[in-house]
């Protein structure tokens, strides 16, 4: 255990070394994991809200997959193979749960801690800097998105909606998705001024959930609209995870992963800069 | 380099067009309680934030614990204890976990932080509330917990921004008692306040700030000696009746201040002035002879009373 701790400390120190070179000095103490620890501790008092996040995609799966699915019959999968409707939408719901888990903590919770609880002002009276805060909060949101994804993946496995061992990679894929949404969520929230601005989050998330080839294939759209849908991050998440759970993963998966790496990096850089401006004024 | 824990020369802070701190010099020595006294908006909190390394200075020199906040912010903050103006405790955590988590931010081990939390809860008399959520605490208790939290890293320098504002008298006295004990144990404290009694009780040395500048500096007693008289005679009149009296009484005292509700006559011997005033036919509704306080110093320096 202590060896593990040593290792993680060393890892933190090296990462600090790397980040210090790309960021102004004094913004990073290499202790982002303390924020993750803090969030885990705080989550004990809101465990019900956290657990409820598991059930949302499950309810969709039952209502749409089993209910609507009995009318739909089978659907063509990514390589033209026939899938039950439930097996078609389940990876879409998995991607959505990774997104939702990450979005909740990086928008609403983050806003409260930033503006009302003044939690980060308290942290800045310690060696922690804005970069620790950005990394730590992204880390926790990612963990929460990952937990939902793991739970949902377990359900998919149990009721036989997984048709390939590639599905094992759906969990790391979901972590990429969650980290990208968490980073962008924090970056966007740092610009928000009041609760009204959060309507914009809903405005982004709900259509994305409905139209990112979650419930029907991309081929349903006219080609002009297909381009638009393909720009959505959730479309890439759904495609990536669907290709893994149905076992047709190809080089295109790397394209999707690249999309999320870029999104996460941009989000993290913007979030760090904004937090520096907001907290060290 | 001197042995000052904080040294500022020509320190300035601008927010856009507004200049909150307009060039101040400070030296805070080890083991002393140093006060910033002044009304709201005087620039006290801006100065404190610069010393706390969370607000880059706009101009001038600043050294805290011998280091430059612009370069070594995290290293300096690791050795400071900060009590902010508004409590920012972690309301999602219990009383004890607030101390635990905070210690971990400083890089302390779990074992070390456990021992420290128990010791600090005892020091601020919150041991029996250790497992309660923070939200259930009273204002005074939250303040005490914030002070305990600021001590978790054994700071070499403590920064307290209006530590007792908004507390009832009993809670204030309990807090002063704790701060006084810290002082006796050799801690160096920097306090901002707009309470005169707080400054007089706690501070070894203080600066009076007004409009972003330091207008006076010294120990509370030095300031009183320099800027006020030994005693003050306060005369209260019925509303509207006091207007004509200052001229009648001006030659009796070293200085006369007219406040909305009373007249202050500064003199070495207050009773003598009162007797002379009575002989001249002055008939106030009530009278009070008291010793000069920092409030009088402030009035003299800025022409305004501090607490309205």
Structure described in brief:
Helices cover 74% and strands 2% of the residues of chain A. Chain A is mainly alpha-helical and 281 residues long. In chain B, helix 3 crosses helix 4 and helix 8 packs across helix 11.
Describe this protein with a few key phrases.
heterodimer, A: 281 residues, mainly alpha, two-stranded antiparallel sheet, 11 helices, B: 308 residues, alpha/beta, Rossmann fold, Alpha-Beta Plaits, 2 domains, six-stranded mixed β-sheet, four-stranded antiparallel β-sheet, 13 strands
What does this structure look like?
The complex is a heterodimer of chains A (281) and B (308). Chain A has 281 residues and is mainly α. Chain A contains eleven helices and two strands. In chain A, helix 3 (47-72) runs antiparallel to helix 4, helix 3 packs across helix 6 (130-158) and helix 4 runs antiparallel to helix 8 (198-211). Chain A is elongated. The model of chain A has no long low-confidence stretch (mean pLDDT 90). In chain B, 35% of the residues lie in helices and 27% in strands. Chain B has helices at 44-51, 69-77, 95-105, 110-123, 139-150, 169-184, 196-202, 220-227, 245-249, 270-279, 294-302; strands at residues 4-15, 18-29, 33-37, 59-64, 80-83, 157-161, 188-193, 205-210, 213-218, 231-236, 255-258, 262-267, 286-291. Chain B is globular, with a radius of gyration of 22 Å. Chain B starts with a strand and ends in a 6-residue tail after the last helix. The interface between A and B is medium-sized, with 26 and 34 residues.
Q: Give the neighbour order of strands across the main sheet of chain B.
A: 5-6-7-3-8-9
SSE string of chain A, helices as H and strands as E: HHHEEHHHHHHHH
User: Which structural class do the helices and strands of chain A define?
Assistant: mainly alpha
Give the number of helices of chain B: 11
The domain tally of chain B reads 2
Residue-averaged pLDDT of chain A: 90
Low-confidence stretches of chain B: none
Q: Numbering strands along the chain, what is their spatial order in the largest sheet of chain A?
A: 1-2
Count of helical stretches of chain A: 11
Net shape of chain A: elongated
Largest interface: A-B, 26 and 34 residues
What is the percentage of strand-forming residues of chain B? 25-35%
The helicity of chain A comes to over 70%
Q: What is the CATH architecture annotation of the largest domain in chain B?
A: 3-Layer(aba) Sandwich
């Amino acid at each position: 255990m202590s060896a593990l701790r040593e290792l993680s400390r060393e890892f933190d120190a090296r990462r600090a070394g790397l980040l210090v070179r790309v960021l102004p000095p004094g913004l990073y103490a290499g202790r982002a994991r303390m924020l993750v620890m803090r969030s885990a501790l705080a989550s004990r008092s809101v465990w019900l809200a956290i657990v409820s996040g598991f059930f949302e995609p499950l309810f969709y799966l039952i209502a749409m997959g089993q209910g609507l699915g009995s009318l739909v019959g089978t659907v063509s999968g990514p390589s033209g193979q026939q899938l039950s409707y439930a097996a078609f939408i389940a990876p879409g719901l998995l991607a959505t749960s990774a997104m939702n888990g990450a979005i909740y903590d990086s928008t609403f919770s983050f806003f409260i801690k930033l503006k009302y609880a003044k939690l980060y002002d308290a942290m800045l009276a310690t060696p922690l800097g804005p970069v620790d805060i950005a990394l730590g909060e992204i880390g926790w949101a990612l963990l929460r998105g990952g937990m939902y994804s793991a739970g949902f993946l377990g359900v998919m496995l149990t009721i036989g909606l997984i048709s390939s061992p590639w599905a094992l990679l759906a969990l790391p894929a979901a972590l990429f998705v969650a980290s990208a949404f968490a980073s962008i969520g924090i970056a966007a929230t740092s610009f928000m001024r009041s609760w009204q601005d959060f309507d914009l989050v809903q405005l982004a998330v709900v259509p994305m959930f409905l139209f990112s080839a979650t419930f029907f294939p991309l081929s349903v759209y006219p080609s002009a609209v297909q381009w638009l849908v393909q720009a959505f991050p959730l479309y890439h998440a759904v495609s990536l995870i669907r290709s893994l759970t149905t076992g047709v993963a190809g080089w295109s998966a790397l394209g999707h992963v690249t999309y999320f790496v870029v999104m996460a990096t941009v989000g993290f850089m913007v979030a760090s800069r904004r937090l520096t401006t907001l907290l060290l004024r | 380099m001197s042995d000052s824990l904080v040294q500022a020369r020509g320190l300035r802070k601008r927010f856009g067009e507004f200049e909150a701190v307009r060039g101040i010099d400070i030296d805070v020595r080890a083991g002393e309680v140093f006060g910033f006294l002044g009304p709201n908006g005087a620039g006290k909190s801006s100065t404190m934030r610069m010393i706390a390394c969370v607000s880059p200075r706009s101009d001038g020199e600043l050294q805290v614990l011998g280091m430059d906040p612009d370069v070594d912010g995290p290293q300096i903050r690791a050795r400071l204890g900060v009590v902010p103006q508004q409590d920012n405790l972690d309301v999602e955590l219990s009383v004890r976990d607030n101390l635990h988590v905070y210690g971990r931010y400083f890089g302390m081990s779990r074992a070390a932080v456990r021992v420290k939390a128990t010791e600090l809860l005892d020091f601020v008399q919150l041991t029996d509330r250790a497992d309660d959520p923070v939200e259930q605490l009273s204002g005074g208790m939250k303040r005490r917990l914030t002070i305990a939290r600021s001590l978790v890293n054994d700071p070499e320098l403590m920064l307290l921004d209006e530590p007792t504002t908004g507390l009832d008298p009993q809670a204030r006295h309990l807090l002063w008692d704790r701060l006084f004990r810290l002082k006796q144990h050799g801690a160096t404290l920097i306090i901002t306040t707009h309470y005169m009694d707080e400054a007089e009780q706690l501070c070894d040395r203080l600066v009076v700030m007004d409009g972003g500048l330091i207008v006076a500096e010294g120990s509370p007693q030095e300031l009183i000696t320099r800027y006020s008289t030994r005693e003050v005679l306060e005369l209260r009149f019925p509303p509207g009746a006091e207007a004509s009296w200052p001229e009648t009484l001006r030659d009796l005292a070293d200085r006369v201040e007219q406040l909305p509700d009373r007249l202050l006559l500064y003199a070495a011997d207050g009773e003598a002035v009162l007797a002379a005033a009575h002989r001249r036919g002055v008939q106030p509704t009530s009278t009070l002879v008291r010793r000069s306080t920092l409030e009088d110093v402030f009035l003299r320096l800025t022409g305004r009373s501090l607490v309205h």
